[in-house]
C-alpha cells in the first residue's frame, strides 16, 4: 500500500490509531450475509487484500471467497479495500467461514455441515499458526423466535469453542458482534437486543458492538434479504465505521 503522507498519518494519530505498519487478519462467522450472498462479485484482486485458502495459505482475495458458502459476492472485498484506503492496515486478510441459513444450533450440532466446516477451518488455522486480530460475527435471521437466554447461551458456547481453538495458534481476537435478524418480513428485536448486550458485555475489552444491519432498506437488497452491490458497499461502510470505533477504544 502506498505510504501515508505526513498529514494523513498525523490525522490518524489524532484519531487514536497507530499509523505504523499493521497486518490485520480477520475470521468471519455467520450466515448468508457473512458469506457469498451479495449480488455483485468483486473478482478483481486488490493490492494487499488477501484470504486464507483451504490449505491455510494467504492468497489474493476475490469473490466468491473460498471458505464461505454461496457463489455470489461478499461484504469483505469492499470492506478490505476501504480499510486499506483509510490507512487502518498495510494488509488485510479474511477467512470467512459462514454458511447461509444457519442458526447457532446448527453451528453447535456435531455432524452438521457447518459444524464440520468450522472445525476444519479451526484445525487449519491451528496447524498454520494463523493469528487473528478480530472475529466478525454476522448472524441472526435464522434464529428469529429463539428465546433470549437460549440465543445468549448458544453464542457463548460457540465463542468458547472458537476462541479455545484459536488460542492454540497464539491468538486471542476481539469479537465484533453485528445486529442482524432482518430478512424480508423476519425481524426479532429480542435477538437484536441480545446481540447488542453481548457487544457491551465486558466493558469493551473483548466483545465490541458491531453495525446494526437491520435498518438497511430494500433499495440495498436484491431479494428483500441479501444485498445488491450498493448494499454491499453501504454495509461495508458500516463495518468500517464500527471497526474504527473499536480501534479507538482499544487504544484507550
From TrEMBL:
Presence of the UniProt keyword Metal-binding in the record: no
Pfam families: SASA (PF03629)
Signal peptide: 1-21
Keywords noted in UniProt: Hydrolase, Signal
Span of domain Sialate O-acetylesterase: 27-241
InterPro entries: SASA, SGNH_hydro_sf
Presence of the UniProt keyword Secreted in the record: no
Protein name (record): Sialate O-acetylesterase domain-containing protein
Organism: Uruburuella testudinis
Lineage, highest ranks first: Bacteria, Pseudomonadati, Pseudomonadota, Betaproteobacteria, Neisseriales
Amino acid at each position: 500500500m502506498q505510504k501515508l503522507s505526513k498529514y494523513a498519518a498525523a490525522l490518524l494519530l489524532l484519531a487514536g490509531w497507530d499509523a505504523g505498519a499493521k497486518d490485520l487478519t480477520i475470521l468471519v462467522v455467520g450466515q448468508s450475509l457473512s458469506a457469498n450472498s451479495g449480488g455483485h462479485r468483486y473478482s478483481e484482486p486488490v493490492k494487499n487484500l488477501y484470504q486464507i485458502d483451504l490449505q491455510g495459505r494467504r492468497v489474493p482475495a476475490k469473490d466468491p471467497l473460498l471458505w464461505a458458502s454461496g457463489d455470489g459476492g461478499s461484504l469483505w472485498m469492499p470492506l478490505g479495500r476501504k480499510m486499506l484506503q483509510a490507512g487502518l492496515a498495510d494488509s488485510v486478510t479474511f477467512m470467512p467461514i459462514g454458511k447461509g441459513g444457519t442458526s447457532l444450533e446448527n453451528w453447535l450440532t456435531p455432524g452438521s455441515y457447518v459444524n464440520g466446516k468450522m472445525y476444519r477451518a479451526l484445525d487449519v488455522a491451528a496447524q498454520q499458526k494463523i493469528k487473528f486480530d478480530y472475529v466478525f460475527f454476522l448472524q441472526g435471521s435464522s434464529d428469529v423466535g429463539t428465546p433470549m437466554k437460549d440465543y445468549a447461551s448458544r453464542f457463548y458456547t460457540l465463542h468458547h469453542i472458537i476462541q479455545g481453538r484459536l488460542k492454540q495458534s497464539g491468538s486471542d481476537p476481539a469479537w465484533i458482534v453485528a445486529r442482524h435478524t432482518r430478512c424480508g418480513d423476519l425481524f426479532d428485536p429480542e435477538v437484536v437486543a441480545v446481540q447488542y448486550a453481548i457487544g457491551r458485555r465486558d466493558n469493551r475489552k473483548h466483545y465490541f458492538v458491531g453495525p446494526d444491519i437491520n435498518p438497511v432498506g430494500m433499495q440495498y437488497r436484491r431479494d428483500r434479504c441479501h444485498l445488491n452491490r450498493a448494499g454491499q458497499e453501504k454495509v461495508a461502510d458500516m463495518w468500517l465505521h464500527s471497526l474504527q470505533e473499536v480501534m479507538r477504544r482499544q487504544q484507550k
